[in-house]
Write a structure and sequence with these properties.
267 residues, alpha+beta, Beta Polymerase, domain 2, 37% helix, 13% strand
Amino acid sequence: MDTGLVIDGWLSVAEAAERLSISVQRVRQLLHAGELDGRKGPGGWVVAENAVRAREQAPPAAGRPLSSHMAWLVVAQLLSADSRPESGVDLEPDRRDRYRLRHLLANRGLERDWALWLSRRADVAHYWVHPGVVQSVLNDPRVSVSGAGVAAAAGAEIAGGDVSDLYLSSEALPGVINDYGLESDPAGQLQIHLWRPGSGAEYVLRPGKPVPVVLAALDLLSAPDSRAHHWARTFIQQNAEGMPILSTERGVSVPSGPEEKQGRQVR
């Protein structure tokens, strides 16, 4: 057990894990690999506090996407910086995630590749469907439409392309495939962002309604049209500067379900 006497300058394995927002097992792995300074005594391992502090202050690794859960927390922060009424979401970080989020975002830099950083929020798949039912798919109550149409409705002077962007729960995909005859095709007209229940997406998305503008902007960062890409990057960076987690120390909690806090915004 790692429960030995901890003196000034040293942390228990559990304390180090909480500070770094990783598991106790991961801390032990880092200690054994020599990537984290520590000592093993009769009561177990203790970790050098200065080593933990250095690891906390190191900027996030370049080119490394966030986990799905953390990606949706960042999306929620971007949304909370947008004054549009539809930008209110229920997803709030707990104390541990809040600490990690503040560190990640404070070190993000304006050059952040948001498209890559938040890419794990959903798995992208392409499907072909008969042209005559494309609009029916987009109007389906299980679907959240994204992309150029959402951006244009928000005032962006960009044109839509040949591919329709939409978000769909991975649990709802089989039913939509069956109902409309979707076929997997890299050149298909539907670009579907499949989100996993429990990732946090369910607090941001409202099936049957368009996605929030910030999320559409994130999707347009990968658009081939240079105007769409420029608009999306500018829009996201403007919202990034106003993320509340960088300007408040107030504690929050994670609600147990999206149906319990309708209409509340991230604080």
